[in-house]
Design brief:
Layout lengths: L1 E5 L2 E15 L2 E14 L5 E12 L4 E7 L7 E2 L4 E10 L3 E12 L5 E12 L6
Antiparallel strand pairs: 1-2, 2-3, 3-7, 4-5, 4-6, 4-8, 8-9
Organism: Mesonia oceanica
Protein name: Protein ApaG
Length: 128
């Protein structure tokens, strides 16, 4: 599990290889990830949007941004957490993801970014 804390917000990531599939005559590698966002600060916060940078070992980079996570904009009081699962596909058996969440602190009304630590995606059959 990969973990990182930014401004009292702890991000934990677990990944899993889901298999391969053909699309447009090209092999793709499917991965899932589970993220837990834990508020270790003294203030209530809300996740408003996300930004992802997804890279594969063929040097292809994709960026994804949007509101909330899986259709939700969770509000986290001190000590609360929110867990969600999502996924991506790559054109190679190896890759990595990183990014950030845009959040707001309800006490100060300030917006801030929470880093999502870089994590690796790897198909187990391709490992030595």
């Amino acid at each position: 599990m990969i973990q990182q804390v930014t401004r009292g917000i702890k991000i934990s990531v677990k990944t899993s290889f889901q298999g391969t599939f053909l699309k447009n005559y090209q092999m793709h590698f499917a991965f899932s990830y589970e993220i837990t966002i834990e508020n270790q600060s003294n203030d209530s916060v809300q996740l408003n949007s996300r930004f992802w940078k997804i890279k594969d070992s063929l040097n292809k980079t994709t960026t994804v941004s949007g509101e909330g996570v899986i259709g939700k904009k969770p509000v986290l009081k001190p000590g609360e957490s929110h867990t969600y699962s999502s996924g991506c596909s790559l054109s190679s058996p190896f890759g990595a993801m990183s990014g950030h969440y845009n959040m707001i602190n309800f006490t100060s009304t300030r917006k801030f970014k929470v880093s999502i630590p870089s994590f690796k995606l790897s198909a187990p059959f391709a490992l030595n």
